[in-house]
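Read as amino acids, tokens; as here:

___
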Amino acid sequence: MEVYIGVALVLCSAFTHSVWNLFTKKSLHKATFLWSLHLIASIIFMPFFVKDLIHLNAGLKEWGFLLLSFMFQGVYFLMLSKAYQVGELSRIYPMMRGMAALLVPLFSLALYGEQLTGLGWLGLACIVGGLFAIGGLMNPSWREQSQLMKIALVVGLCTTGYTLTDKFVVTFMTPLGLLQLGNLAAFFILIPDVIKAKQVKAEWRLNWRTILIGAVLTPGSYLIFLFAMQLAPLAQIAPMREFSIVFGTVLGMIVLKEKQGISRIAMALLITCGMMLVGIFGTPV
């Protein structure tokens, strides 16, 4: 019974992740919206961060990893705001999520000497095929869409960077403290764009409800996943979280009325299947 609850929680985590990305896409100014919700989230999570710092036993190596995580997460949110300025949710969201899912195992192979099974390589092939298809490689004018692929690549590199970095950070900092590090990274790195845009009042006037909801959903999607990990095996539920790709594509088609919905859903399913192959069957037993 606990396993089924864990699966339900991880699907809820995937859905909430896609929802706050939908909110970002619908916002007036993407950087201002993300900055605003992380301002609220920073206030909420600051006590946990301060507690971690008080009890932190860190040397030069630990502080270096904290700085790396801060930079990776900050650039991630900066590029996320750029992505939703130029790309449709049903297209750019699976590209960004899929690019990270492709790069993490490849970097793990290089850095940690890990190996993939045949099914793992098949999963990577599905991810690559889905990425290029949804990115427009099959379209004669696909070169015009190269900006989307470049942004997705940078977002994927940032996600890979903080994923590999945070693998060490969580050995000396709590997950709640780590969430706050991401909140602060987004808050500070987005400040120049926010000042330049001068749309804080307009954003709050138009989207104050989704800002407040997003301030809960952004860290909340990960916290729900943490609860799920206590109820079901990580190897089983971690790949299921990537079902957010399908949720995001469907939301783009239904809520935002984006075109090519059926083909993009098919490619999102292909990428998701690839992720699940890598996550569940990719590592030798």
The two ends are 26 Å apart (CA to CA).
